[in-house]
Amino acid sequence: GENVEQHPSTLSVQEGDSAVIKCTYSDSASNYFPWYKQELGKRPQLIIDIRSNVGEKKDQRIAVTLNKTAKHFSLHITETQPEDSAVYFCAASKGSARQLTFGSGTQLTVLP
Amino acid sequence: DTAVSQTPKYLVTQMGNDKSIKCEQNLGHDTMYWYKQDSKKFLKIMFSYNNKELIINETVPNRFSPKSPDKAHLNLHINSLELGDSAVYFCASRSQSHNEQFFGPGTRLTVL
Question: Which of A2, B29, B54, B73 could be a cystine partner for B93, CB 3.0 to 4.6 Å?
Fold first, then answer.
């Protein structure tokens, strides 16, 4: 089955700096890669996603890049703000069921 | 106007008991899921279900069973609860024409 690895497990940045979280996946058939943000005690919420036919996608301060050959994808957050502090999960899926295989999560802390 | 709802929010019970968690979505989605998030925040797929197909993750014990009375509901039944079942359980749903999964607020299950 699919295996998704995520690094780093914790990341602290100063407000205004950039943050980068990286994931690798094992199943070359995976073709959909979402990123979820989970605040303490809350549900995971989608912040950005990318399909395998696209190399990069951007939404304001958030961008995701995908390298299908190397089977890795990354989340980039620019101009970080304290409210960006949360756990971020990458995931991969394939097929019609779209079951998500999640990475282990990254606790991002933005220091004011 | 909650999109995906779960009841109860908290569930505390004794080992060996049987319990159910309910999930309802009012988005008109075709596919519903159950995920388990353990104490280390690892999120793992348990089931996906639409009106044609149930996919069970091979690591899920058969004490867990999803039941769908209609398209808007996917309940989770757990028999003979064990200490290791303590976790937060998230329901999610998705339209077959889109990739994004919407998560419910989660149910924190504590087995004593």
Answer: B29
> B34 in contact with A at a CB cutoff of 8 Å?
no
Give the confidence band of B1 by pLDDT, cuts at 50, 70, 90. low
Alpha carbon distance A21, A12 (integer Å): 12
pLDDT tier for residue B112 given thresholds of 50, 70 and 90: very high
Which residue of B lies nearest to A100 if distances are taken between CA atoms?
A: B45
Q: Which chain B residues in 1-30 lie under 8 Å from chain A, judged by CB atoms?
A: none
A4-7/A106-111 β-pairing: unpaired
* DSSP 8-class letter at A82: G
Which of A2, A32, A42, A43 to mutate to test binding with chain B, by most B CBs within 10 Å of its CB? A43
| pLDDT at position B50 over 80 | yes
* Amino acid present at A43: R
